[in-house]
# Entry
Amino acid sequence: MKIQFDIGHPAHVHLWKNSIKYFLNEGHEALVTCRNKEVALKLLQAEGIDHYPLGKIGNNKIQLIGEWIVRDYKIIEMSKKFKPDIFLGVLNPCLAHASALVRKPCIIFNDSEVVRSTGMITYPFVDTIITPEKYGKDEGSKHVRVKSYKELAYLHPNNFKPTDKIFNFLNISKSDDFVIMRFVSWGAGHDLGKKGFSNEEIVNLVSRLNKDVKVFISSERRLPQELDEYLTTFPPELMHDALYHAKAVIGDSQTMTTESGVLGTPAVRCNDFVGKYDMSNFIELEEKYKLIYNFRNSQQATEKIIELINNNSKNLWKNRRDLLLKEKIDLSKFFQWFIEGYPETEYMLRNDPNYQNKFFGVTNER
# Structure
């Protein structure tokens, strides 16, 4: 079987890396294209995955549209030469359009209900839409729900074993408490018009936190010069070790908040997406599993992170994470099963939505 992937974000490397390696080991062929984004390219290189960078990243709406048009054309041309049997991506219109032209099935994963316009130019051309179980919209007859989050494709204990290498990198001891702060650029297409912490709020936050713990900042955007001493460029392969060992994580990042939560590290998220129409995974991680906290107000977020630093119990968070892992599945294992048996596996799930419980050993919900 020939499988074509496209990587639009560094998190997508993590989502697909275990499945790509599995398919290759099983004798299948894989073509991996990627947005020309530095972190994603470094991750693919670190994982030893052959890939093809496509397109210069746009910084505004017009440039983003231009980028998508160029990538659409290039992916279509590559698919004509590769002749895949199936396409896999994350809410990816380029793959969807290519699959329609070469008349091969396209399976799309999506965990973001708030991204609407991309879905409108993607869903009509795909065959299957896979989402987390609690995804807040019904995408119709193509929709398959799975008891997982995308982060459990690579941070499930089956796939991730933390190491202590991060302490040497940060030049701290294992007994030192540290906090990671993560801030994004807000330049992606679905982020335009949204915001998280302002520079002034970040400065105030650091001044509050560095009295009690060591502070390390990872940021996609340029921050005030006075914060330079806290800035850290984490090697991509050590980022999850850092999240696992941190006392807590705070910022405006979507992905790192969920990653911290599924690793059992308290996380506080503050941005404009928080509210009534927030993504279902953030709502579930906060309300059911109590692993993360979501705010629109930076002052409330600051007070919560200080409370967590002073009072959080590792055993309490471990117990909360253990419950999550009893009720969610290894998403990489699911994809490997689903793709190799497709489309029969989709029919199985439609006839018996609880089949994944039996196959993957999920504990029934309370």
Notes: Confidence is low (pLDDT under 50) at residues 188-192. Residues 207 and 288 are 32 Å apart (CA to CA). DSSP finds 15 helices and twelve strands in the chain. Residues 61-82 form the longest helix (22 residues).
